[in-house]
Amino acid sequence: MTNRLLPRLRTTLYALRGGFLVRPLLIAIALGVLGASLSSLEETVPPLSAWVPTVLFPSRADPQVAQVILATIAASIMTVVSIVFAILLMTLTLASMQFSPRILSSFVKDRVTQWTLGIFLGTFAYCVAALPATRSLPHPFAPVATVTCAMLLALICVAWLIFFIHHISQAISVNHIVDRIARETEGVIDYFMPDSQRYAYEPQGVPFDGNKREVLVGSAVSGYIRYVDTGRLLYLAKAMKLRVRLVRRVGHFVPAGVALFGASPEERVDPECARELRSAFDIGPTRTMQQDIEFGVIQIVDIALKAISSAVNDPSTAITCVDQLGRILIRFVSRNAPVSLLCDPPHVVRVIVSWIGIESLLDTAFEQIRHYSMSDIAVSMRVLRAFDDIASTCSDPRLLESLIVRGRRILVGCAERLNPDQIEKLQQRLSALEGRMHPVRTANVTEASP
User: Fold this and answer.
1) How does DSSP assign 373-424, residue by residue?
2) Pairing of strands 259-264, 215-218
């Protein structure tokens, strides 16, 4: 039961970590507790108020002044919070309409926005928690140090508001949006595709009996595969003496009842076993960046496609997107491919996982942009440059050949829509890309010679 809850707990923590709930709530609770504790401590230890300079709080014996200050700060903070976040939501709505609705998830994960909400709500909670300590009856008491800290928090909120406005004005620019998505995607690549594999084992030529009959286990719910706990899947397959083969990979949509994975031998798979194996999958209504490298690429492609549409006609934004896509692909090809055959013990295949490959990622990143930019010389030139940048960082002849083929498709597609001078520029850039192939072939011949 505990093992079954671990994937759900991980998914829940991932969702909460990237929302407006956990961090702002913790900050607000911490400052609220601070306000209540400090006012109580100040009443218990009266000399604590003596440390506050008289200039900051001259009316030490008048609790009404303390009440007015705390109430004014609390009311002002909530007014500012409502106005600022109403403007923020309107800005996000316009940004989602102009760029892509999928970029909202990256804004929700923005830590500056979360800290802003937490500090403002925390200051309000601090003032509300400190208000009961200020009283006129039966004995007048004014928590001087507590009110001074509230005034300090108010100044911090003013400074933070200026910083937040500056941050948002930069965050909604397309360059920062695309760069943030690219950095997040690179983080997924770094975590998911380390240079050295950790627990998985995939020797060459691992035999497994493909003739055994397997039973296809359908998904219990409809949604996107957001995360596959391969460690738990490998553990369950070994414990149940099964071989599990994933039918669809992370990022694919699986309707309820459609095959999610196959398990063999068939006679060992019962309903309880299928339920345990399903617990290693996180399936939800939206895609996430837990393991889905393609999702980050799709977000950038969406922005590029909307930019080169006839309604927007913004090739500069599309060029920025192409640059960031090239950056992601360079990081992807520089890493070891994820292991698809998980074995335990060695030479006994337990789990067969399909991950996205470089060809599929290239298709996702550039094919639609290539198709819709046939009449735009600037975007087509930049796509060829991205191919050349990727080719300059790899030595795999198959990948180089694929990039050259894709570059030739660009030239063929643009031949009917651009003038001869523009086609010549594209041809020059394609020739530079094709020239990358010759050093690789020369190196291969040199290694093969005795």
Assistant:
1) TTT-HHHHHHHHHHHHHHHHT---HHHHHHHHHHHHHHHHHHTTTS-HHHHH
2) antiparallel
Name the phi and psi angles at 224, rounded to 5: -90, 140
Which residue matches tokens 């299928």? Answer: 274
E strands, 298-382, in order: 341-343, 349-352
> What is the pTM (predicted TM-score) of this model?
0.80
228 DSSP β-pair partners? 281
| The amino acid at 397 | P
Place of tokens 């393609």: 294
- What is residue 83's three-state secondary structure? helix
| In 247-370, beta strands by DSSP E | 253-254, 259-264, 281-284, 341-343, 349-352
H helix count then E strand count, the chain: 17, 8
Q: What single letter denotes the amino acid at residue 16? A: L
Q: Who's near 32: CB < 8 A, 6+ residues apart?
A: 122, 125, 126, 128, 129
Work out the average pLDDT over 118-132: 92
Instruction: Identify the CA nearest to 353 among candidates 280, 273, 283.
Output: 280
Q: Dig out the tokens for 197 from the structure.
A: 């594999």
Residue 426 CA to residue 413 CA, distance in Å, equals 11
1-5, 47-51, 343-347: least confident range: 1-5
Write down the domain spans for the chain.
2-172, 291-337+353-448
Q: What angle do CA 174, 176, 178 make, to 5 degrees?
A: 65
Contacts of 210 (CB under 8 A, 6+ apart): none
Amino acid of residue 443: A
Residue 227 near residue 282, CB atoms below 8 Å: yes
Task: Count the neighbouring beta carbons within 10 Å of the beta carbon of residue 318.
Answer: 27
| Region of 257 on the Ramachandran plot (φ > 0 left; ψ -120 to 50 alpha; else beta) | left
Strand ranges inside 353-419, DSSP E? none
Give the whole-angstrom CA distance, residue 168 versus residue 91: 9
295 pLDDT band, cuts 50/70/90, is: very high
Tell me if 324 sits within 8 A of 387, measured CB to CB.
Answer: no
Question: What are the distances in angstroms from CA 291 to CA 125, 188, 229, 328?
Answer: 38, 6, 10, 15
- Specify which of 23-27, 38-42, 56-60, 96-100 reaches the highest per-range mean pLDDT: 23-27
State the average pLDDT over residues 226-244: 89
Report the distance separating Cα 436 and Cα 440, nearest Å. Answer: 7
- List the structure tokens of 200: 């998985």
- The half-sphere exposure of 79 on its side-chain side, counting CA atoms within 13 A, is 8
